[in-house]
């Protein structure tokens, strides 16, 4: 197929797109990528997708690192999916290479490292939990909005459903950090904990709540509001305790204000925000 025929087949989508991917993956993938990337946006999208089928992980990830920072959102998304496929199929070889993405000057590449780690999460892949969490660890300090949002989403929606106990243990360790961005992540992700972990999450939030910085305390308040929707009994009991603690009472009142200023437990009096002083 010529360059023009390849792009035309790709643009048609559906089965035509699948056929062109199969055909090109049987040729020299990297050579095709070199021809496609300098051209149109569609060419870069095809190149990114095709790289996920490359038998040469190191070379493919080198090109995907560039495409993960492309101006086109769909190209970036395709690059993330392709890198995820490579990490899944060539974990031992790809893992250290992805580690280098974490220090890239472009936040879109750092964001891609986070998203790719989430794609490697699988309930049966217990041997990958520790290395994947290590991959994410330095990115919890990253204040770039793109990275911060990706870290929260991957931890809450990929790691928690698949590795609830392992992630909770890691969040507990991270809660000892003095970095406010790390503590923000701890609180925000614990607020999305599955019900089986929620009571333990409140114990960690109790400690994080003592941090005096507004950024962290606001995250704790939001976490309590979220947990109250799924575990009202546990949150109500915890907030009663906080209201009797001068250091935590202001935060408890803020959370109660967001919940609706009243949290009723079966057979008990409602938890109400008490006036300061």
From TrEMBL:
It holds the Pfam family HEAT_2. InterPro entries: ARM-like, ARM-type_fold. SUPFAM superfamilies: ARM repeat (SSF48371). This is Uncharacterized protein. It comes from Candidatus Bipolaricaulis anaerobius.
């Amino acid at each position: 197929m010529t360059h023009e025929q390849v792009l035309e087949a790709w643009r048609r989508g559906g089965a035509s797109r699948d056929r062109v991917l199969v055909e090109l993956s049987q040729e020299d993938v990297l050579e095709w990528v070199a021809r496609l990337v300098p051209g149109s946006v569609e060419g870069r999208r095809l190149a990114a997708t095709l790289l996920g089928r490359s038998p040469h992980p190191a070379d493919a990830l080198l090109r995907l690192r560039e495409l993960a920072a492309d101006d086109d959102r769909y190209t970036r998304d395709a690059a993330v999916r392709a890198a995820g496929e490579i990490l899944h199929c060539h974990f031992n070889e790809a893992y250290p290479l992805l580690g280098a993405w974490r220090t890239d000057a472009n936040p879109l590449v750092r964001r891609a490292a986070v998203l790719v780690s989430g794609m490697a999460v699988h309930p049966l892949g217990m041997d990958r939990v520790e290395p994947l969490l290590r991959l994410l660890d330095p990115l919890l300090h990253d204040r770039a909005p793109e990275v911060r949002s990706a870290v929260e989403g991957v931890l809450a929606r990929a790691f928690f459903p698949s590795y609830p106990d392992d992630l909770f243990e890691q969040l507990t360790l991270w809660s000892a950090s003095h970095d406010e961005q790390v503590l923000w992540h701890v609180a925000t992700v614990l607020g999305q904990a599955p019900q089986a972990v929620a009571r333990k999450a409140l114990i960690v939030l109790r400690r994080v709540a003592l941090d005096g910085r507004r950024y962290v305390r606001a995250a704790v308040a939001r976490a309590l509001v979220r947990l109250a929707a799924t575990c009202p009994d546990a949150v109500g009991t915890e907030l009663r305790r906080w209201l009797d603690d001068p250091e935590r009472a202001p935060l408890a009142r803020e959370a109660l204000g967001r919940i609706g200023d009243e949290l009723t437990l079966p057979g008990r009096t409602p938890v109400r925000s008490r006036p300061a002083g």
